[in-house]
Amino acid sequence: MGDAKPEPLAFVFTDIEGSTRSWEEHPDAMSRALAQHDRLLRGVFESAGGTVFKTVGDAFCVAFMDPPAAFRAAIGCQRALDDASWGELRMRARVAVHVGLAEERDGDYFGPALNRVARLRDAAHGGQILVSAAAAAAVRERLPDGARLGDLGERRLKDLLVPEHIYQLTADGLQAGFPPIRTIDQVPHNLPAQHSDLIGRREELAGLAQLLDRRGARLITLTGPGGTGKTRLALQACAAALDEHPGGVVFVALAPLREWEHVELAIAGTLGVREATGQSLRQAILSTIGDRRMLMLMDNFEHVLPAGPTISDLLSNCPELRVVATSRERLRLQGEIEFPVPPLPSAGVGEERPEDIGVAPAVLLFAERARAVLPDFRVTHDNARAVARICAGLDGLPLALELAAPRLRVLSADQLAERIEGSPGGKLSLLRSGPRDAPSRHQTLRDAIDWSYRMLTAEEQRELAALSVFAGGFTSESAEEITGVPRSLELIESLLEKNLLQLQAQAGPRFSMLETVREFASEMLDKLEDAPALRRRHGEWFARLAARQSGRVQGRNRAEALAVFSHERANLRVALRWALDAGVTGLAEDLALGTLRFWEATAQFSEARQWLELLMAKRASAKVLSALGLVAFHQGRHQDSRRHLREALLAHSPVDPPGVRAETLVRLQWSALNEGDYRAVEETVEESISGCLAAGDVVGAALAKVQRAMVRAAAGNRAVAREEFDRALDALAAEGAEEALGWALNAAGDAARAAGDLETCERHYRRALEIGERLRSDRVRTAAAINLGLAAATRRDFDEALKQTQQALRVQVAQGRRDTLPGALLILSLKHITAGRVAEGARLLAAAELMNRRLGQRWEYGDRDLVAVASDSISRLGPQERAAAEAAASAMDEEQMRCELFE
Fold first, then answer.
1. 4: exposed, middle or buried (C-beta count within 10 Å: 0-12, 13-18, 19+)?
2. What pLDDT score does 496 carry?
3. CA-closest candidate to residue 515, choices 445, 585, 455
């Protein structure tokens, strides 16, 4: 009996909604009501055959051997509470049902199933019953009479890593309508938190809501002058539309971009898209969005208008996607609905009474922002007309109003109005009739910022101009170093108070400018004599930062290093662009190569390739060619990879550091291994090891030794290979190079699997999987998962093999990657062959071979025994059957292949 397989139990957890507050406000009534609640629920549970194994306060924890009985009890609880007479306090229970395995100890139960049902209960409302996917599956055909299950979709529950597909159980006579359940991602989104109210935009919000309700409104562009609050309005409207877009609401910041070609990269980065071998970035984005009902907010589109066709392509291929864009002009795309965002209305001409002036939207906004610096500020009889003049003089532009309001700390309302109206050449009202070839909206914003700029001291003006060299934000340390101003921190604080800088609290002590302010300040920077020196110092600072963080990407501080790179991505791009345009190619090379490990770790290979090709056109050094070879390898362009890497070896100069050639050799060896060219590896591996060691590159040397071990294992020298693997793994672990260790463990596992040592191979794969999970490295963890599947297939445990394979494929499908698909098809082929369905197995193996050819891949040597087993069985089929299998495989597209694996 001790070896009997444990049976899953059904668990029902309940508690009372709002009980803490009821105890505080009505202790006597709560005591009586709780006693009645306990009697009712205990009676329901016992009559249904449940075991109450724990009560905590007002919560019941109940176990059932029979899942339908748990459903009857859950419904019975709610009916009993609804039918009871409660007096002043009515008991409303939150109820959850889950089915799973648990460990019983001393009359109590323990295990993940208990955590899941508890979190499921916490997501419910009083009177509601939530059911897990496992519980729904267990009772699908045996629901109590009159009961129904409503699908609430897949949600994430607090503290649980794996999402739960949640259902709502209703029955005749019970409440069915409830607010959205309390999960941590009712709708996934990355909308920036707003720390102030949206003022004066009620009509615009209503109009946008109506548009977002229209099925045919796929592309809505908010247009208007810079500074009218388009972004703020769009954020509010998109936040209000969260529930209508269960596929997610995504905010894509375009302001930091300087190249319209980078729009696709910005979308991919926001969605977390990773590139796959043989697939373009555009295809990966389309695959990620698919048919999800998603809302995408593209902010500050005006300077990347040539990227408009990218948006058209997304809308054409993703039928449920909707796009809201903010731009100073229309995108001029088919189906676009323009939504003008005018300045805020000011007080009417001739208004005298403060109560009339005070309700104007522009005045409301100005007064609210003024109270941020003067808490007692009000629109009164004494200042109402001056406030109206201020708002009218600033054309009701929200940005101008927000810049002006803090000046009330040093000026009265009358003095501020006089400066706005009387400032020569710097007054918005006088710029309404500017040059015909300059957009009035640009004039208006320029005037608002120019007015604020002229209010600064000369020191503050220079600091603002110098700080515009940064893109996407900066730290006080980088500002002090690059601007060269001794009082930089003090000046930053002053500019922050004047709302010309913003504090990025979510990213630590970091500052940024509104993009419109930065554009104006950049023009002021161009007038400074030392502007080129400032831009060079900016590039050199970030080249040094990239070099420091690049080494950390491979080690124990990987997460911190990637976060730094992510924060400074826009600065690195701006620095690279300037260095290339200015012909400072040495600096451009340092920046690109320093950023390479970040691009590699985050699979941003298209961007890496763009920059490296621009750099190669000006400086085809060995380092640049080697980096291009690495990027081509990751993109599956293996011929290009080997060509670039061989050119790098030819371009290598004796004055180059020893590590340059060694690094190139290691990369060339990976390419050769991918194509099964073991002789090429043997010819250069010793040189690469010694070169890496001479350069102090312990990680590179260890990876080269892994390559040598792979060659020895493939040649049958398994004992020697195993010792080599063990030493390399120990070296990588000692260096804290965890991602490299993950790759090495997968390689060592392949060798052990080829040698028939399944225990060792699975130990290596599981360790690699754990590393990939901890680092959130999808490339490591998907490789480990598919390898675990292949190992399970080797021992003929095809259910476990497919489980691991499906896990890897789900991650890869979300990323648009395809490189593990052949191995998954091989596993399914073997399952069919083992079950006697040899023709089916032949078709699937042919599909796997076809995918390998499409991807430019070959079977790893650890897989070849499995391929040989399958091929041997298939060879016994007749020629016509084999031909039919190959024809059927050639007719399959990739989507059909994936569907086979999830049936």
1. exposed
2. 82
3. 445
Q: What is the structure's pLDDT at 3? A: 45
* 752 and 605 together in one domain: yes
Please report whether residue 544 resides in a domain.
no
Burial of 757 (0-12, 13-18, 19+ CB in 10 A): middle
Contacts 24+ apart (CB under 8 A), 366-371: 366/390, 366/391, 366/401, 366/404, 366/405, 368/196, 368/197, 368/199, 369/401, 369/402, 369/405, 369/406, 370/405, 370/406, 370/408
Q: Which residue is associated with the tokens 């009479």?
A: 145
CA distances from 695 to 118, 622, 657, 659, 700 (A): 55, 16, 7, 5, 10
Contact partners, residue 355, CB within 8 Å, separation at least 6? none
604 φ/ψ angles, rounded to the nearest 5 degrees = -95, 65
- The domain that holds 62 is classified in CATH as 3.30.70.1230
Structural domain range at position 464:
456-528
Q: Return the number of other C-beta atoms located less than 10 Å from residue 616's C-beta.
A: 18
Measured from the Cβ of residue 375, the count of other Cβ atoms closer than 10 Å reads 7
Residue after which a domain boundary falls, among 711, 735, 769: 769
Q: Do residue 570 and residue 427 come from a single domain?
A: no
Cβ neighbour number for residue 464 with a 10 Å cutoff: 27
CATH of the domain at 214: 3.40.50.300
Please count the other Cβ atoms lying within 10 Å of the Cβ belonging to residue 790: 28
Give CA–CA dist 653/312, Å, rounded.
48
For 462-489, give the DSSP string: HHHHHHTT-SS-B-HHHHHHHH--TTHH
Instruction: Pull the structure tokens for residue 536.
Output: 């060079």
- CATH number of the domain at 563, please: 1.25.40.10
Task: For residue 299, give the 3-state DSSP assignment.
Answer: strand
Nearest to 228 by CA among 360, 348, 396, 434: 396
Report the distance separating Cα 772 and Cα 779, nearest Å. 8
Q: Do residues 746 and 879 share a domain? A: no
Question: Which pLDDT value is given to residue 1?
Answer: 35
Residues 678 and 815 in one domain: no
Q: Is 145 in the same domain as 39?
A: yes
Mark whether 511 and 395 lie in a shared domain.
no
Structure tokens at 659: 């590590």
CA distance 32 to 87: 10
Residue 394 CA: distances (Å) to CA of 75, 424, 445? 62, 15, 9
DSSP letter at 162?
S
Q: What is the predicted pLDDT for the residue at 51?
A: 95
Query: Quick one: tokens of 261?
Result: 């070609």
- What CA–CA distance (Å, rounded) separates 521 from 468? 6
The token pair at 494 is 């002053």
- Map tokens 């290598």 to a residue: 652
Let me know whether 725 and 827 are in one domain: no
Q: What is the CATH number of the domain that holds 470?
A: 1.10.10.10
CA–CA dist 308, 311 (Å, integer):
5
Centroid of chain to Cα 624 = 29
Residue 319: the pLDDT is 93
Determine, yes or no, domain membership for 810: yes
Closest by CA to 386, choosing from 403, 367, 406, 361, is: 367
E runs forming strands in 406-545: 502-503, 511-512
215 inside domain: yes
**In total, how many domains does the chain have?**
6
Q: Token digits for 861?
A: 């040597």
Series of mean pLDDT values for 10-residue runs along the chain (903 residues): 63 91 84 92 95 93 95 96 86 94 82 87 93 93 90 71 82 87 70 73 90 90 84 87 84 88 91 77 89 93 91 94 91 92 75 72 89 86 89 82 84 86 45 34 57 82 94 91 85 82 71 80 91 96 95 84 92 96 96 94 87 93 94 82 93 84 91 82 91 91 93 88 93 90 92 90 94 84 88 88 82 65 88 91 92 77 82 90 91 84 75
Q: Could you tell me if 564 and 646 lie in one domain?
A: yes
List the structure tokens of 81.
Answer: 């509470």
* pLDDT value, residue 259: 87
Q: Please check whether residue 349 lies inside any domain of the structure.
A: no
